[in-house]
Amino acid sequence: MQIAFIGLGHMGAPMAINLHKAGHSVKAFDLSPDACAQVKAQGLQVATSAQDAVQGAEAIVSMLPASAHVEGLYLGSDRAPALLPHIAKGALVIDSSTIAAATSQKVARALDAAGIAFIDAPVSGGTGGAIAGTLTFMVGGTDAHLERARPLLEKMGTNIFHAGSVGAGQTAKICNNMLLGILMAGTSEAIALGVANGLDPTVLSEIMRRSSGGNWALEKYNPYPGVHENAPASKGYAGGFGTDLMLKDLGLSQENATAVKASTPLGGLARAIYAAHSIAGHGGEDFSSVIKMLQKKG
Ligand code: NAD
């Protein structure tokens, strides 16, 4: 299948590479020349623009930072014209970015009016899951559109959930990421407490992993350097899931909670913690670096 892939960052690049390895013809594009060069080195075709990427594409996958990027790409902005008129009627758009459900619905309505199918399909599983092709997809859209997308999603992930109509994938994703933000801050706090008492972080992490505090951070993504060799914490908090992206997601969950009058006090506290961490200069580091603000200095 001819696929356009737009957004080749930490997540998009390995996802596009997996579609390519599965035998699809992938034409990829990113505003960053370095990101384009990285996938070109893996044998993917690189487009000169988003318009070039979608020429002849039966499916378009986008993996962009936030709502404004997705709306700007498909519907246009002050900076760039809309991609929508360049997409073939009957094509399928899969947006895997984590964005506001309302933005997914707005883009879906505009595409639908032009005869183009849309699903929101945000992911969980981190960069490790993107590389291994074991992501979890949370899909919003019709059954028919999901079934069209499924063969592609299966090349990038192992768990595919249908959350509901367009936007529902995004709602599931912000619930998950609100929990992730809280559990990473909580796990960091517990490890920092143990270390302040002289405990070995690896031993303490293993005790908690096998006890009632066990969670995903303790399994795969320990915030303390050296505990998990492949976690961002052991690589100077480079790569992974940026603090500012977590802050964006916690903003989305708090906005949503306000809209539906839900009580999310820990989500609100987590947002404040990551905001302070970002302002302290850690916005570009992996979000597990939040442990730095909870550790005893010296
Ligand atoms: P990233 O910042 O590494 O990559 C985003 C890429 O989009 C960049 O390379 C940027 O140049 C490109 N881009 C922005 N606007 C563009 C445009 N108009 N046209 C083409 N390219 C454009 O971000 P990421 O970590 O890959 O995350 C992408 C999305 O996935 C975010 O919404 C994030 O919240 C979500 N997500 C990330 C992770 C993770 O672990 N990193 C996990 C799950 C979900």
Describe this structure in words.
This is 3-hydroxyisobutyrate dehydrogenase. Its EC number is 1.1.1.31. Belongs to the HIBADH-related family. There is one protein chain. Helices cover 49% and strands 13% of the residues. Helix 8 crosses helix 11 and helix 8 crosses helix 12. The chain is globular, with a radius of gyration of 20 Å. By secondary structure, it is α/β, with parallel strands linked by helices. Helix 5 links the parallel strand 5 and strand 6. The protein has 2 domains: 163 residues, NAD(P)-binding Rossmann-like Domain (Rossmann fold, 3-Layer(aba) Sandwich), CATH 3.40.50.720; 124 residues, Orthogonal Bundle (N-(1-d-carboxylethyl)-l-norvaline Dehydrogenase, domain 2). The mean pLDDT is 97. Bound molecules: nicotinamide-adenine-dinucleotide. The site of nicotinamide-adenine-dinucleotide has 27 residues, from helix 4, strand 7 and helix 6.
Radius of gyration: 20 Å
The overall average pLDDT, rounded, is 97
CATH fold-level label of the largest domain: Rossmann fold
Tell me, briefly, the overall form. globular
CATH superfamily caption of the largest domain: NAD(P)-binding Rossmann-like Domain
Q: Give the helix proportion (percent range).
A: 40-55%
| Percent range for β-strand residues | 5-15%
CATH class of the largest domain: Alpha Beta
| CATH architectural grouping of the largest domain | 3-Layer(aba) Sandwich
Number of strands: 9
The assigned structural class equals: alpha/beta
**Secondary-structure element string:** EHEHEHEHEHEEHEHEHHHHH
- Bound ligand species: nicotinamide-adenine-dinucleotide
Sheet with most strands: 6 strands, parallel
| Overall structural domain count | 2
State the helix count.
Answer: 12
Characterize the quaternary organization of these chains: single chain
